[in-house]
Amino acid sequence: MNKDIQLWETREIAAKYLSGVRGAIPLAAEQIEVMLMLVKGAKINVNSFLDIGCGDGVLAAAILEHFPNAKTVLLDISEPMIESAKEKLSIYNNTDFIVCDYGRKDWLNRVSNSTPFDLIVSGFSIHHQPDVRKHELYEEFFNMLNVNGLFINIEQVLSPTKWIESIFDELFIDSLYKMHLKQGNSISRDEVAEFWFNRPDINDNILALVETQCQWLRQIGYRDVDCYFKILELAVFGGRK
Ligand SMILES: C[S@@+](CC[C@H](N)C(=O)[O-])C[C@H]1O[C@@H](n2cnc3c(N)ncnc32)[C@H](O)[C@@H]1O
Parallel, antiparallel, or unpaired: how do β-strands 234-240 and 145-156 relate? Predict the structure, then answer.
């Protein structure tokens, strides 16, 4: 079985992610603000967009607040994640939910009726793909964007050194610990650290340096490519067509 399906297939794991790690991502609100700032700055009327690896649709929800009539495609490999996205976005009626693996090239057939898009966003998803496939995906996105269309990836990227990685680990453990305290859970910081270093997706992460990924985007033809925001391993990067 595909490892991504294994990882995200159960409702329990999906729920754990949504109420746990997602809620504890440092500067998560700021990452979304930067995404919205870029969309605003691109001066595009978002008539259509794709949230790929959408999870519960957290990114799509932020965009739909500003462009409530946009034709929205939400794609995820996990049925439970798509179910929670449906719930979250139930007030919108121009949404299309697709359960599909974008690791396989035939995902393109599943969205071809909805292309081109004005905007493609992704949050913490593509780092499960090998680098060759990441690069291909960025090319596939480029080909399905309108001119002036924007691609924004909010993503975990590789620390350039082990020391920097250790600082990131401490940041995330602190953040998770604070979240547990806020939720009234009785858990020690050591237990949180134990979870963090043994989290279920740790061996499925194939992180790549943000500089490398920005370079790929430039080679593909994106312009205004940059890492627009970053704290340690958490980056917001992308470009315009
Ligand atoms: C860490 S979650 C992030 C969800 C959401 N984008 C967010 O920002 O909270 C990663 C999501 O990517 C999805 N995903 C991972 N690999 C995928 C693949 N090959 N095809 C489609 N979805 C995938 C998972 O099912 C999961 O919902």
Answer: antiparallel
Ligand 1, atom 26, residue with closest C-alpha:
55
Q: What is the pLDDT of residues 33-84, one digit of tens each?
A: 999 999 999 999 999 999 999 999 999 999 999 999 999 999 999 999 999 9
* Residue count (the chain): 241
- pTM of the predicted model over 0.90: yes
Cα separation values, 78 from 3, 15, 102, 111, 123, Å: 12, 12, 11, 17, 15
Ligand 1 in reach of 73 Cβ (< 6 A): no
Does 175 contact ligand 1 (Cβ within 6 A)?
A: no
Structure tokens at 219: 């080679």
Q: How many domains does the chain have?
A: 1
Q: Is the CB of 128 under 6 A from ligand 1?
A: yes
Residue 9 has pLDDT above 80, yes or no: no
Question: Has residue 162 got a pLDDT over 70?
Answer: yes
| Residue 71's CATH number | 3.40.50.150
Domain that holds residue 232: 3-159+203-240
Does residue 194 lie within any of the structural domains? no
